[in-house]
Amino acid sequence: MADTQFWDRVARRYAARPIGNMAAYETTLERTRAYLRDTDQVLELGCGTGSTALLLAPGVEHLTASDLSGEMIAIANEKLADFEGDNLEFRQSDVFDAGFAPGGFDAVLAFNFLHLLDGMDPTLARVHSLLKPGGLFISKTICLGRHAWHFRALIGLLRLVRKAPPAVNFLDAGDVQSAIRAAGFVIEETGDYPVRLRAHFIVARKLADPSDS
Fold first, then answer.
1. Separation of alpha carbons 109 and 111, rounded Å
2. Residue 190 in contact with residue 202, Cβ under 8 Å?
3. Helix (H) or strand (E) holding 202
4. Nearest in space to 102 (alpha carbons), one of 138, 65, 134, 127
5. Between 200 and which of 48, 149, 173, 206 could a Cys-Cys bridge form, CB atoms 3.0 to 4.6 Å apart?
6. What is the pTM of this model?
7. For residue 180, how many C-alpha atoms fall within 13 Å in the half-sphere facing its CB?
8. Of the candidates 143, 139, 135, 140, the residue with the CA atom closest to the CA atom of residue 184
9. Distances, alpha carbon 24 to alpha carbons 30, 107, 137, in Å
10. In this predicted model, what pLDDT tens digit does every residue of 66-95 receive, in sequence order?
């Protein structure tokens, strides 16, 4: 609940903020599009104000973009009014929404999301269950490293003035890869976009059963 309140409060400022590294963002979009098909049913987790969903939706059959923040979804729906298509919906929910059927998606997307969770494993297990056999989990995660003490201090100060979310996990790229593999995926592609911030991009394909990994 505390995280949701934070994102509701900052949503308008977040929406107005320009993309920090456009080249890295465009590379992420390019690599993601390379795996998506026009017949795909896609779910995006933590969609924020919907900018990425609006750009990816034209290349798939249907995209459901979800976020727990009602204010983020309200802004996304404002943007949706200018979208030329009927295959995109924004939904205030999380991965555990009972309306998401097991095996219902060809791809699940999660950009700048996993490091904000209070533990990745339950979410990754749920993603695995929502994907069709052979489905793709495509993610990008901020990986500052477990020993990034200067970032820890900065985040701590920002929390004091209510400018950082309550949960920020300091992960290594290896932490994220290991968790994804343990959830029943095989990793097909990785990259860092941008390299300096270590925003770690992963394309992982669902195995039949977690024990197969």
1. 7
2. yes
3. strand 199-206
4. 127
5. 173
6. 0.88
7. 29
8. 135
9. 10, 21, 19
10. 999 999 999 999 999 999 999 999 999 999
The closest alpha carbon to 96, from 123, 136, 135, 64, belongs to: 123
Q: What is the pLDDT of residues 98-145, one digit of tens each?
A: 999 999 999 999 999 998 888 899 999 999 999 999 999 999 999 876
Instruction: List Cα–Cα distances, 160 to 12, 96, 103, 118, 157, in angstroms.
Output: 20, 30, 42, 19, 5
- Per-residue CA distances from 142 to 3, 8, 134 (Å): 17, 21, 26
Angle at Cα 45 formed by Cα 14 and Cα 53, nearest 5°?
65
Give CA 173 to chain center in angstroms.
Answer: 15
Residue 199 forms beta bridges with which residues? 142
Distance, in Å, from the CA atom of 108 to the CA atom of 42, rounded to the nearest integer, reads 6
> DSSP labels for 5-40?
HHHHHHHHHHHHSPPS-HHHHHHHHHHHHTT--TT-
Domains defined for the chain, CATH in brackets: 2-212 (3.40.50.150)
The amino acid occupying position 202 is: I
Q: Are strands 185-192 and 131-142 parallel, antiparallel or unpaired?
A: unpaired
> What are the backbone dihedrals phi and psi of residue 112, each rounded to the nearest 5 degrees, phi first?
55, 50
